Fold this protein.
Amino acid sequence: MLILPFNQQRPTKKSLILNQDNQLQLTPYSTRQLIQHYNHQQLIDFSQTRHLCRYFDHHRKIPQINGDYQLLPLGGTAHQNTSWVALHYVAAFEQFDSHVLFRFLNGTTAELNYYGQQLETEIHHCAAIGRILRASLRLCSLSFGYDITIHARFPDSIIHQYDNCTCSRCQKIPQTTADLVQLLDELEINKSNYIYKAATQAFPECPLHEFAWYNDVNVFIKQLRRL
């Protein structure tokens, strides 16, 4: 639920992790290293999220977002050691002075120093990006004749409080394939990008046996990125 820098008299331990079972873990890896390692395992990585943040004119902090799974830095950037909060586990929060109090879905609370601007705006940005990614997945599936229903993994999370929002940023969430292609064009996404190809059905025909030997998920993701 939280990844925090740890510098107290334990030079071999660099980060403190609070997981969803309320267990605390110390790790020799910095928060930057942990997030970068996590990012490298994701199909949607910082490069795509950065495009969307710029689209919303949001240049301060780049979150790591994969649909419902959303990690927000509370300071600095992905290239610095800072605290990260898993928004999908957050039920509510209160911001006051230079602190923020998070209430998590499991009832745990955590109060942290926070010197940024309005946290609600940043969470709203993350929620909108998550909605764009979920909508893009469904529209790409429709392009290939599959009408899928995407269920919320964390329906009580704070990120789903914006599901029915109609503000200017949420109005940019694509509703049709044409909307998605227009969004990709506005983001100046290269037409060789796999999302662009999926939206326009521009994938080359590939027999299933060509992918059958990818038993490792990470290898398969790398192959998808090359398409």
Remarks:
- The first helix runs from residue 31 to 40.
- The chain has a mean pLDDT of 81.
- The two ends are 34 Å apart (CA to CA).
- The longest strand covers residues 90-96.
